[in-house]
Q: What sequence folds into this?
């Protein structure tokens, strides 16, 4: 059976990743920290892989580049700034990234921080 990543599941995932740090986050530990019945290590591993690739893309790094906690912080700061600009009405939502704006990498980051629009089953098969 296929797992659908709801906003609540994604929030639990992010909480675990942030507690561990992106470089120390491993599927088994994230799974234990999330404590969700029926979720498998493979579900978490796939989501983590996609999340790391997303962060690299937003940071302008190649897919094979190492991902540091500093990069994660930079992306989070961009997401927060983008979200605040939207609240102030300075940016319009970009449908490609859920509720993110359309101003480059910061806009892409905003989409990932929003309620899982980019993690719909249609967007990420498998």
A:
């Amino acid at each position: 059976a296929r797992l659908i990543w709801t906003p609540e599941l994604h929030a639990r995932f992010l909480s675990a990743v942030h507690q561990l740090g992106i470089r120390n986050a491993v599927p088994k530990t994230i799974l234990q920290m999330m404590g969700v019945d029926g979720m498998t290590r493979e579900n978490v591993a796939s989501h983590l892989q996609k999340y790391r690739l997303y962060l690299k893309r937003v940071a302008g790094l190649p897919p094979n580049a190492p991902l540091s906690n500093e990069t994660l912080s930079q992306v989070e700061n961009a997401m927060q700034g983008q979200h605040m600009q939207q609240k102030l009405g300075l940016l319009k939502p970009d449908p490609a990234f859920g509720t993110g704006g359309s101003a480059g990498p910061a806009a892409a980051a905003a989409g990932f921080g929003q309620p899982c629009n980019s993690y719909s089953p249609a967007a990420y098969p498998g």
Q: What stands out?
A: Helices lie at 7-20, 27-34, 41-59, 69-87, 105-113.
